[in-house]
Every structure is written in C-alpha cells, then in structure tokens.
Amino acid sequence: MKVGNGDLGPKPLKFTMPTYLIHFAQFHMEFRLPELDSLAILEAVELRYDPAAYSNDSPFMLVEIPNDDDARKLVKRSILVKHIVRLWAESPTLEDILETIKDARELHAPYLKSSFKFIVAAFGYTIELDEQISRIERFSFLPFEGPIDLKNPDVTFAYYEDYGKPSAQEGAVREANKPKRVFFGVLLASGNRGVVTTYDLKKRKYLGTTSMDAELSLVMANQALVRLGSFVLDPFVGTGSFLMTCAHFGAFTMGADIDGRQIRGKDRRNIQSNAVQYGLTGRVLDNVVCDLAHHPWRIQPVWDAIVCDPPYGVRAGAKKIGNNPKIKPPPTVLKSNGEPRYPQTVPYEMNDVIVDLIDFAATFLVPGGRLVYWLPTVTDEYVPEDVPIHPKFKLVANSEQNFGKWARRLITMEKLRGDEELVGVDLERGAEPATAVPAHSKFRTKYFECVRGVENL
Amino acid sequence: MRLITHNMLQCHAKGCDPSQSYPLELKEVQLESLDAEYSEDFIRRLIPKLDWNVLVHTAFALGVAELPKELPDVQDEAFLRKVHQVALETRVKEAQMVCNGCGHVYPIKDGVPNMLLQDNEV
C-alpha cells in the first residue's frame, strides 16, 4: 500500500459508486474532512464527495465509496465519525423516503429473514421517545419477517432527521416534523470514538501542563498516516501524549525534549510509566534530551512522521541553548556530582521554532512522510499566508481550534517524493516565503498582551 | 537508550570534526534487556536506515551479539529477529557516550541520553 500517493483531497462525485451517509461527531468540525481524507489514503479506499455540499454546521455528509467493506475500513480508526450508513434514500420528508423505498425489492431482499432494530436520531432537534416509536412504525410496511432484536441484531436500520444548526433567534424551539432533510439506510459501522476514553487525560497517571487532550492526539495520529510499523518522532515530547496515541495505531515512537525533567518525571511516574499503563511498552521506544536548534541526530531521512505541539512559551517556556548575557556563566560545566550543568538558554521565538521544525522535517522525514504540528496564532491577525511553506512539502490540511482571541491550527504537511518540488495543492503561493511578519511571531508577548485571562489553554 | 538510538546519534558540538563525530563511543556501560514488539515490516524498513557497521561493532563491543559483518542478501526471519533483539531490545541503562573527535561526554542516566551541549559549544 502506498503512503500519501500524492492524490490528495476530495475527488468529485462520479455517481457510479454506492452512496453512503457519514454521521460525524459534532466536535472539532474543521478536523472532520482532513481526518476522513487521511483515512482514505491510509486504508486505500476510493472516497468521493462534493466538498461544497459539506458544512461544519451539519454532522451529515454523503459520500461515494466502492462497497460496504471499504466503508467499514474507512471509518474504523476515525475519531470524528460516529457512524457510516449505506444510504437507501435521502429526501426532504419522511413521506418521500417511504415512497422511495417501499417497492425497492432489491434493497429489502437481503434482510427479509434477518433480526433487526431501528435507530432514530436528529440533529438540531430532540425527538422524544414516543415520537421515535411513531417514526419507526411508519416503516412497518417493509416486508421484514425476522424478529426485532435490540441487543444483537443482524441488521440495524438508521433514520436521521437534520433540522440544521439552531439559530440564535430560534433558540432551542424547533417545529417538530419539519426537518430540512431526512436520511434512511443500513447502519454499517461505527467510528473509533471509544478509544478517546482509553486515553482520557483524567485517567492518565503522568501528566504535564501541556499534555494534549486524547481526542485531538488521536486525530493527529490519523493525520500523520501512522500505521503498524511506522516510525514516529515527537521532537517536543513533553510528557509524551503523541508517543502513546501514535503507538496505539501501531507506530514505533521516539521523543526528544530540551527539558529532561519531563521525560524522567518523578516518583516513578514518567513517559515510560504511561507506556506501561497503556500496554504500549513494546512500541514506545526511547526519549532523548536535546535541543531542536542544536540537535544530535545523524543526518538521514528516517522517520515516517513527525508529530508535535511546539512550545509556544505560555506554559512551557520556549527556549534553546545559547549564551545569555544576562546570566553569569558558571565556573565549570560539571555539577558537584559530576553531571553536566544545564546549559544557558535563550528565548526561542515562535516563528524560529516553526521554521527550524519544518527544516528539520525536510531532512529527517522519509519521502511521503508527514509533519503534523500545532501552530498557535492570534485569531484577529491570522491570515492563511502565515502558514509557512517549504519547497520539499505540500500543505495537506490546516484546521483551526479556536479559543477566542487566540487559536491553534493543526497543520499537516507531506514531504514530496523524489525531486518533484512544489507540485500539488498549495501551488498558488509558489515558493514565496511566508508572510513577512506572521501572526504567530512573538506569540508569547501577544498572548500576554491581548489574551491574558484566558484560562482554557 | 536502545542501540537503535545509539545508531542515530552523533556529536554536534561546534567545531567538532564531522569525520570523527560518529559513532559515539560507549564507556562504563551498564546494559539491560527489555521486550519490544517484533514487527517484520518495521525491521525490514529499519535495516537500510541503520549504519550497519556501527551496529555490528557496538553489539560486539558490548558483548551483546555477533552480527554478520556484511548485510546478508537473504534476510530470513531468524536474521530479522536478531536485528530486532540487538537494536530494539538491548538498552544502555547507564553509560558515558564519548565523542572521539572533540571528547565531549554525553551521559546516559536511567536509559535517557543527555545530548545537550553547553552554550559555548553551539
């Protein structure tokens, strides 16, 4: 199977493949399509959809996929997909749906003797239980002779009503039975949202102030196309969140950090003890204390993915080794116990961190490898041109998690194969450098000037 | 620090002779072995990225294993498992890692190598 075959992004609908309904979780909306696109590459599934028909305001999207097995494969690792349904009908009203499917014998045929159940759900409206039952009863004309089995049915039919995102004027009051559109089909598979609970920070034994929440850490592993046998580095490893979620999907992981205290932890709680907690010691390999700006790695393309949350200096101070004239140098480089002293450091400006990271990735990723990192920025100043480009990379995805005055953006870049420099989806900007002064430069200063008081980091 | 990582680290002090900065010499070594998951795919893709000579010499010097001096043409499972055991399951718990070029000492403590330079070395 090829990784990142260069055939990225949505492909237009051909109307030659079966149609499926994807029911997304209504979280992290900007991350949903990039994750789905990544999973299509990872699982080598031909996926087609109309990006114009997708909206962050709706959890429903129609896609074309060759067959049911591919549909199941596509979502089995997905953090942001709840369900995938083989569509029987989509329509403005339930009556239209009933009309469409009532004589569709070829659709009914496989399920005539099957045990079954129905699920009913809505977006933008709460269908009470009695209303749910009356909806299900409308389907009673279907010629299914099998028993109803709520626990372990052979087939689950799914009926969804989409009332759209509630507007401020409407409040929570919606008119019943007036959805914008409805869907009906066979529920094929669920996504992988259960794994979010496994890696929930509340249950993790060793944590730091910068530990990344489980859901986004897992999405990042999908964005990185991590799979069994991948080799992954987090060069700002901290307490090792990404080592765990990438190893969960089969990667062998390594970390590096200028701050060895986070790697070693204390009271026998550290990155290694987290690996023990999750049963991942066989794949979470080594951590190295080093500085990205003066790193010790032997030069060669070695990692399949680099996944990280660079230090932006709000909680974890961004710093690199350097002579700091404000500090009096110690008389010797060794402490009294013979260990080397911690070197002097100087502030590591956000923009320099990002530029160094991308240069590092350009050298150390294998062709087709992915760099997945968070770019913090000031919401009002951000422009898309802030995102640095590099002649060895194409930009694959840029998804915002907004915190009000500031935001962080998950940037996914893919290293080009061979010598094809700068071909791909981000050609419009050519080889021009990023904006002269991007919004994320001096992020720490700006954060404390204008965002101070924001607690949720 | 597993031997896979030793194979990937070099001295990066300012002014260090690049022809002497790799490999780093392990001294006062305390070894341990630990389990790692065997993945044929990972090992097959790792082998071309290893400096084979360095792995052979390091494994021999530490008394871990005798690996063939030349990479065999046919890499059967027994060979792949041996590379797995040497590179992923052999861990240097305590050691001094010394650069033969500039003499910089990188200590390894409780399995974690400290590759930080002093500010006058960058």
UniProtKB/TrEMBL annotation, chain A:
Sorted UniProt keywords: Cytoplasm, Methyltransferase, RNA-binding, S-adenosyl-L-methionine, Transferase, tRNA processing, tRNA-binding
Residues in Ribosomal RNA large subunit methyltransferase K/L-like methyltransferase domain copies: 203-320
Membrane-traversing stretches: none
Location, primary (coarse class): cytoplasm
Cross-referenced Gene3D superfamilies: Vaccinia Virus protein VP39
Gene Ontology terms describing biological process: methylation; tRNA processing
GO cellular component terms listed in the entry, alphabetical order: cytoplasm; tRNA methyltransferase complex
Family: Belongs to the class I-like SAM-binding methyltransferase superfamily. TRM11 methyltransferase family.
InterPro entries the UniProt entry points to: DNA_methylase_N6_adenine_CS, RlmKL-like_Mtase, SAM-dependent_MTases_sf, TRMT11, TRMT11_N
GO MF annotations, alphabetized: tRNA (guanine(10)-N2)-methyltransferase activity; tRNA binding
Location of the tRNA (guanine(10)-N(2))-methyltransferase TRMT11 N-terminal domain: 19-193
Name the UniProt record assigns to this protein: tRNA (guanine(10)-N(2))-methyltransferase
EC number per UniProt: 2.1.1.214
EC class name: transferase
Domain of life, per lineage: Eukaryota
Subcellular location: Cytoplasm
Presence of keyword Transferase: yes
UniProtKB/TrEMBL annotation, chain B:
One GO CC term, this protein: eRF1 methyltransferase complex
One GO process term, biological-process aspect: maturation of SSU-rRNA
Xref: Gene3D superfamilies: 2.20.25.10
Short name of one Pfam family: Trm112p
InterPro entries from the UniProt entry: Trm112, Trm112-like
MF GO annotations: protein heterodimerization activity; protein methyltransferase activity; rRNA (guanine) methyltransferase activity; tRNA (guanine(10)-N2)-methyltransferase activity
Family classification: Belongs to the TRM112 family.
Protein name: Multifunctional methyltransferase subunit TRM112
Organism: Spizellomyces punctatus (strain DAOM BR117)
